[in-house]
Design goal:
Length: about 325
Amino acid sequence: ADQLQQAREFMFAHPDNRAAATYVIPVVFHIIHDYGVENISDAQVLDQVAILNRDFAKLNADTAAIVSPFQTIAVATDIEFRLATLDPDGNCTNGIDRVASKRTYNADDGSKLNGWPRSMYLNVWVVNTIGASGVAGYAYYPSSVTGAGLAIDGIIILHDYIGSIGTGSPFRSRALTHEVGHWLDLAHTWGSTNDPGVYCGDDGIPDTPQTKGFTNCPSAAASQVCNAGVVENYQNYMDYSYCSVMFTYYQKVAMHAALTSNVSDRDNLWSTNNLVETGTYTTTPSTCVPVADFNGNRTMVCQGGTVTYTDYSWNGTPTARNWSFPGGTPS
């Protein structure tokens, strides 16, 4: 934690001292599912990655709505996310890993199955429900998952907060942007609690003013709660206002500090060697052999009854299928 704070303080003093023009981060989505709605499509995941890159590059059209005190400090972060095309063993992957498990329900850290090395990938686990009431997703600061915490490092999030299509929606599609902010050492704008609106707090970022935090979208005038005449940055991705559209300049600097620190291996993710090893050095997609997977609509049936099987093959596009059920009709 001290190392990370030192890195942040150095970067605040030397904000242009970047190690890379753009920090590319390899990502893997683990879909923890029970063959239900949480087993979201590849298209929904790809939509989420596009939204993530749009938000971090400040290419979202709704930046036009940023209120005047923050227009000049809303920035592109120079951080990019790419789905892995090589898994930890060097095998072809589309960056989407599907794991059938009942742990998709009431999920917690124990649901973070089949995690890939955090020094190589940002792990995102997608689940049906999360045990903690009212939680859409959560992530840990780098300083919270050093040592023994490496197995739970990453982001866990509900399936209907992924992307804007399928089970997702445009309204919820910025949740992962928020959680990646935490993963890169950003606090909520009011500080390190989950309780906005309780008190006026600070996040340690020089250009985000003291704020109480919001659970809805106020007007600029209504946001001046903590200090008279000071508009609070309720449009920040690290708020709960659901009208979030921006990161600030010094939030960008703080995330770069996290990425250049060795705390929880963030500094290896964007290295050239790691991008080559994860197949993310270029954006050329891979064509992988599908992983065969199917599920039946029932597991027990009386003689003469019927079972419907559905193809859930993943990691590529099947071009042919062959199956056999000896003694069945059809066999």
